[in-house]
Every structure is written in C-alpha cells, then in structure tokens.
UniProtKB/TrEMBL annotation:
Protein keywords: Kinase, Transferase
Family: Belongs to the FGGY kinase family.
Lineage: Eukaryota, Viridiplantae, Streptophyta, Embryophyta, Tracheophyta
GO biological processes: pentose metabolic process
Domain of life (superkingdom): Eukaryota
InterPro entries on file: ATPase_NBD (IPR043129), Carb_kinase_FGGY (IPR000577), FGGY_C (IPR018485), FGGY_N (IPR018484), FGGY_RbtK-like (IPR006003)
Start and end residues of each Carbohydrate kinase FGGY C-terminal domain: 303-513
Domain Carbohydrate kinase FGGY N-terminal: 7-276
Keyword presence, NAD: no
Keyword Translocase in annotation: no
Name under which the protein is recorded: FGGY carbohydrate kinase domain-containing protein
Length: 571
C-alpha cells in the first residue's frame, strides 16, 4: 500500500462504534465494530463518552489490522455519529446528565424523549429560527435537552463547560480543535448556517466565526447563559464538513487510535448525513438523466438512511420551507446546497419490537439459527411460501386485513407529532410464525407508506424527487426495499458498498487530506452504484397499495379524533 493511500471513516451508532478503511475510489478494504454501553430508564436514554472513545479506538485498530493497513497508510479520517448530546467540564472530563448522578453517563442519546415538555414550551414562542426546522424543534434536538438539564440538574449545568454534538466531540477528542460542524449546529442546534452565504465558499475551507447563533432565541427560552462568553459552551467557530481541524490528530489520540500524530481529521457529520454523502452520487449510467445538469440531477434524489430510525435526505439549490419536515438547512450535508431532512423515529427498532415481542419469537429464532439465516430472511421465506400456498396474485396482498401506523415512537415527519402512537389494526388470537410473518409484512408496509407520505409532502412543497437511494442495515433486506419501491412508485438504487455511513465519514478524511477539492467532488469519485430495484409493473400492485395507503392515512386522523374525544371526557 502506498504511503497515505487510504481513508478512515468512523461511525458511532446507537449500539456500536464502527470503523472502515476505503481507497480513493470508495472501495471498502476492511471494517470492524465494537459495542458501546447504553442505559435506558423510561424516557431517559444515556451513554458514556469515555466508553465510546474506547470502543472507537478498538474498532479503528481492528479495521486497520483486517485491511492490512499501517498507520502511515491512513491519509485522513472523519467521524460520523448519532446526534446525541455530550457534556464535559473545563478539563474535558464527563459531566453527568443523568438523574443517577453517575458521572460516566454524560451523553443524552439522540432518541431520548425526556424533553417533550421543554420542546412544547420552546415551540410555543414561535421564534423565527423555528421556521428552519419545519416550524418547531423536536425533543430529539439539543435546545430542549439543554433546557431540561438546566431545569433538573443544576449542579451538572454549572459544571459543564462544553455542550457538544457527539460527532463534534469525537473530532474535538481527536484533535483538540473545538470548531463545530455546520451539519450538527444547523440541524440540531438552530444555528443559521446561511448567515455565511455569500461570505464563504467551501473552497475557502476555514473555521468561521459563529455568527449564525440567534442570541434572542436562546435568551427567550431561558438559556441565555449559553451565548455568554462568546458562545464558548456551544461553539465559537464553525466549519463546512470535511474542513481540516487543528493540526490533525494529537499525539495522545494518535497513540490511542494506533495512527500517526498530525493525520488530517475532517469536520464531522451526523451519521445519517454521512450516509447521504456516502450514497447520493451512486447513480448508474442507465438511471442518470442526460437532459439534467449534475446540479439539477442531485436535487431529484432522496436518500433513505435506514437503521434504528430512518432519515430522508434531499437537497436543493433554493431554500424550501416544508411544514413538519426539518430544514431548510444550508450546507448541513453537501456544502452550498440546502438540505431537507424528513425522518421516522422508529423503523429498524419497530421491526425488532414487533418480532421480539411476539409469542412465536423464540421458536422463530431457533428455526433461523438452525438454518443459519437471520430472523428477517426466514420471515421473508415464510411469506413467499404463504403467497404460494394461498395462490394470491402478489405477496403484498397477504396483508390485506392488517394495517399498521408505525408511530410507536411518535411521528417525526411530516406530521411532526411526538405524541402520536402506533396502531395495529386487524389482530387475531393467532400466535403462529405465519401470523408473525404477516404482522412483519404489514409493519414494513406501514413504514413504507410513511416514507411515501414524506416524499409526496416534499414534492407538494417544491421538491421534484423521482429517485430514491437506500443505505443502512434495513437496505440489506430485499423485501423491505421492494415494498418501498412498489409503494412509493420510484426506483430505489442501492450503493455498491453496504457501509455508506462509514464511506461518508471517510469522504471527510479524504477532503481534509486535500485529496479532493470538496465534499461533492469526493462523492463523485468515491460513490458507486450497485443494484437498482424497480417498482412492480403490475397495475394490481399499485391499486392495492393506493387503497392501503388511504387506510394508513386514516389511522392517524382517527387517532386525533380519539385523542380529542378522551380529552373532552377528562375535562
């Protein structure tokens, strides 16, 4: 391997830290993962930055070993992570964000919903910054979580010297540079990235004074102390994703990671946004539209980053305000493009919940293990045999009596109702594996109808999305992808490399190492297409899903009606 020839991407997800080594064409040479600890108590979900850094170091060393890559071969690295909130003191030591006061537990995990009340109070103020996050903050964003800590854990509040998004903290831990990413600050902290429009271009690539904080907003919501002292606690300077931080890896972090001091580190991305960077240019020649410029073509695509939750990423050159959908976020994923970000709070997590809590789950797990396949592969096989036995025209029709509203962890987009609940319509006393397979199919369809709702809503407000790209764990499930293609009516492109989030993180390292002039330039070289899944051409399939989609939409309307009826009854 030639000196400085590969790029390292690190992704800290909800359950593990992963590392991947890629060449300049985006080919994966080796990857590894290491589990991370998580504490869950009701709405409070917490992690430890100390534990996460140890897991990152383990994963990086293992990935380098598997790829047969020496420290001097790594030309640059980038970090991606969940948008969890990290608290550290003046020395960088953890500050507890937990009722338990356990100092290890210094991270409020992205999916934590302790701050629903705080989010409601912030939204009631109708601050102008809220129009840039779909009209209101989610309890998964940082301002409500910060307000919760201030109101409930005064000692921690006074001890914390830095509040950071997890991916920014990882880059800070690696380089000692406290510059924040336009991705994290704009998407999760109400930072107005477009304050830099016309002042800086990506090619200028430097840390910019953070002039996009709306100090009135922070004072109004009771967090004015965070903008005191030149905003040191939440970010004095910001940079485009991929901007080279500090002097690269510090000697300490380099030793811990098994890499060389000074190795360039790019400004971070949130994990879903790294998935977008890792996949959005993965379009095969046959699917590319010759009559569109590169700039127009990329604005017709939406990336589904499908994991525990699903994020729906689309970009535009003009800012588009879409009620209930996050954004428009300037330069939050691809520099100098506006990002629209839809999402579903529980997708992979919901499928796990449906399967694991069914009476047939232990039996199914044993059968899957004996056949050396995953539970989902076995469920897909069961559905195929059921469709054959029942002689139905197409597999999707098995679920005609079962309808699922997948809002088991609220609705992020496009209804933006964290209080929404999940609904399963059509339950029986059947406890068999076959009935579990039906529930699983109906749940996949419910998730896909949710994505259809998001796509239709975005297109009704100015987008022209006609192609989907999918990555993440669920994208490996052929039934999941085919149902989405059939239900949304768009082709779905799968990337050549499964590990799109790691690839997106490695793009940051390649840009920091000056291998490419910017993020989009790197994407064109390092993204590559794999399989294309087309919607069914059978008109009966379309007719079936149109009917089920109507029922899907009615389930939420009924829930609102039920909520209102019960609220009146309790007055």
């Amino acid at each position: 391997m030639s000196r400085g020839g590969v790029f390292l991407g690190v992704d800290v997800g909800t359950g593990s830290a992963r590392a991947g080594i890629f060449d300049e064409k985006g080919k994966l040479l080796g990857s590894a993962s290491s589990p991370i600890q998580i504490w869950k108590e009701k709405d409070c979900i917490e992690q430890s930055s100390t534990d996460i850094w140890l897991a990152v170091c383990t994963a990086v060393k293992s990935a380098c070993s598997l790829a047969n890559v020496a420290a001097e071969d790594v030309a640059g690295l980038g970090f991606a992570a969940t948008c969890s909130l990290v608290a550290v003191d003046a020395d960088g030591s953890p500050v507890s964000v937990s009722w338990s006061a356990d100092a290890r537990r210094n991270i409020i995990v992205w999916m934590d919903h302790r701050a629903v009340d705080q989010a409601d109070r912030i939204n009631a103020r109708n601050s102008p910054v809220l129009q840039y996050c779909g009209g209101g903050v989610s309890p998964e964003m940082q301002a409500p979580k910060l307000l919760w800590v201030k109101e409930n854990l005064q000692e921690s509040w006074s001890m914390a010297c830095r509040w950071m998004d997890l991916s920014d903290w990882l880059a800070y831990r690696a380089t000692g540079d406290d510059t924040r990413s336009l991705c994290t600050t704009v998407c999760k902290w109400t930072y107005l990235g477009h304050a830099h429009m016309g002042q800086w271009r990506e090619l200028d690539s430097r840390d910019m004074e953070a002039c996009g904080w709306d100090e009135v907003f922070w004072e109004e919501i009771g967090l004015g102390d965070l903008v005191e002292g030149n905003r040191a606690k939440i970010g004095r300077s910001v940079a485009f994703p991929g901007h080279a931080l500090g002097s690269g890896l510090t000697p300490t972090s380099a030793k811990e990671l098994g890499l060389l001091p000074g190795t360039p580190v790019g400004t971070s991305l949130i994990d879903a946004h790294a998935g977008g960077v890792g996949v959005m240019e993965s379009v095969p020649e046959a699917e590319s539209k010759a009559d569109l410029s590169d700039e127009e073509a990329i604005c017709r695509r939406m990336v589904l980053v499908c994991g525990t939750s699903t994020c729906h990423m689309a970009v535009s050159k003009n800012k588009l305000f879409i009620p209930g959908v996050w954004g428009p976020f300037w330069s939050a994923m691809i520099p100098e493009y506006w990002l629209t970000e839809g999402g579903q709070s529980a997708t992979g997590a919901l499928l796990d919940y449906i399967v694991e809590n069914h009476a047939a789950a232990p039996l199914l797990a044993n059968h899957a293990a004996s056949q050396s396949v995953s539970i989902f592969e076995l469920l897909n096989k069961i559905l195929l045999s059921m469709a054959h036995e029942q002689n139905i025209p197409f597999l999707s029709a098995l679920s005609q009596d079962t309808h699922v509203l997948p809002d088991f962890h609220g609705n992020r987009s496009p209804v933006a109702d964290p209080k929404s609940k999940g609904v399963i319509c059509g339950l029986t006393l059947d406890t068999s594996e076959k009935y579990l397979a039906l529930l699983y199919l109906a749940t996949i369809q419910g998730i896909a109808y949710g994505t259809r709702h998001i796509v239709e809503h975005c297109n009704a407000h100015g987008h022209k999305i006609d192609t989907l790209l999918a990555c993440g764990g669920l994208a490996k499930n052929s039934l999941y992808i085919q149902e989405h293609a059939d239900i949304i009516g768009c082709p779905i492109i799968l990337p050549r490399e499964n590990e799109s989030v790691l690839l997106g993180a490695s793009v940051l390292g390649a840009v920091a190492a000056k291998k490419f002039s910017g993020i989009h330039d790197a994407m064109k070289s390092m993204n590559a297409a794999g399989k294309v899944v087309h919607p069914s051409s059978d008109p009966r399939v379309k007719k079936y899903h149109d009917a089920k989609y109507k029922i899907f939409r009615s389930l939420y309307e009924q829930q609102l009606s039920h909520r209102s009826t019960m609220a009146q009854a309790l007055q």
